[in-house]
From TrEMBL:
Native organism: Anaeromyxobacter diazotrophicus
Official protein name in the record: 3-hydroxyacyl-CoA dehydrogenase
Origin: domain of life: Bacteria
This protein's record includes keyword Cytoplasm: no
GO molecular function: oxidoreductase activity, acting on the CH-OH group of donors, NAD or NADP as acceptor
InterPro entries recorded: KR_dom, NAD(P)-bd_dom_sf, SDR_fam
Coiled coil: none
Keyword Oxidoreductase: yes
Family: Belongs to the short-chain dehydrogenases/reductases (SDR) family.
Residues of the Ketoreductase domain: 7-172
Keyword terms, alphabetized: Oxidoreductase
């Protein structure tokens, strides 16, 4: 039996791209999944096709939306066993071209959003002495690059948050890992000059493995998936 059978999972950014592929993979392994993002139409389509059990629309960077996500998930599907922080945005531009608003938005969604979602589910995971958090970072969180400073900084931060959560949660039986893909064939990649190296389904398989079968001793690892 799959390690995810009968578990519940929240996938942020689950409306399309890597998040939708992850919802499909977790559901196929027997988990009951809530997908969360801003575009309700995409979330409802995910439920319609059977990729998820519940759709909750909202913004990961808004505390009240994240609180509503946690309450709706627990009310409908039960305590959250797995959190996949996959919501992300990218706005490219040289440092001197990037507006402070664009800088802040990328940090807020890509990094603070993951913090807020983790904060919402960690107390229950600690009480139950079980749970997994998988943060979808990026190769950009291990290297520098031009025209994407806010994105790179947010992903370096997300890898750091992953390692800190792993330290805080190890003794409570809860694991936290990062998955860092290279270029994946999604809408986000179309904003870049990079050719795709990976399909969302390939990355989703790794995320699902980290959420289920990966040994507990891997907590804190940043799993790179470059194709
Ligand atoms: N594609 C790549 O090459 C690549 C490589 C490495 C890492 N990643 C990471 O993988 C993750 C998924 O990216 P993707 O390529 O699948 O991009 P995508 O197709 O653009 O999907 C991004 C998802 O995040 C959601 N989202 C964005 N802002 C949000 C917010 N404020 N609140 C809630 N949800 C939000 C989007 O939905 P709404 O717009 O409806 O909110 C969408 O569901 C991101 O964290 C990205 O940084 C991607």
């Amino acid at each position: 039996m799959s390690a995810l059978a009968g578990k519940t999972a929240v996938v942020t950014g689950g409306g399309r791209g890597i998040g939708l592929a992850t919802a499909r993979a977790l559901t196929a392994l027997g988990a009951r999944v809530t997908v969360f993002a801003r575009t309700a139409r995409e979330l409802e389509a995910a439920v319609q096709e059977g990729a998820a059990a519940l759709a909750v629309a909202g913004d990961v960077s808004r505390e009240e939306d994240v609180a509503r996500l946690a309450a709706r998930h627990e009310g409908a599907l039960g305590p959250c066993d797995v959190l996949v922080n996959c919501a992300g945005i990218l706005e490219r531009g040289l440092v001197e071209e990037l507006s402070p608003a664009a800088w802040r938005a990328q940090l807020e969604v890509n990094l603070t959003g993951a913090f807020l979602c983790a904060r919402a589910v960690v107390p229950g995971m600690k009480r139950r002495r079980a749970g997994r958090i998988v943060n979808v970072a990026s190769i950009s969180g291990t290297i520098g690059g031009d025209r994407a400073s806010a994105y790179h900084a947010s992903k370096w931060g997300l890898v750091g948050l992953t390692k800190c959560l792993a330290e805080e949660l190890r003794e409570h039986g809860v694991q936290c890992l990062a998955v860092s893909p290279g270029s994946v064939d999604t809408d986000m990649l179309k904003q870049t000059p990079f050719p795709p190296q990976l399909r969302p389904e390939e990355v989703a398989k790794v995320i699902a493995w980290c959420a289920g079968e990966a040994p507990a001793g891997m907590t804190g690892a940043n799993v790179e998936v470059f194709g």
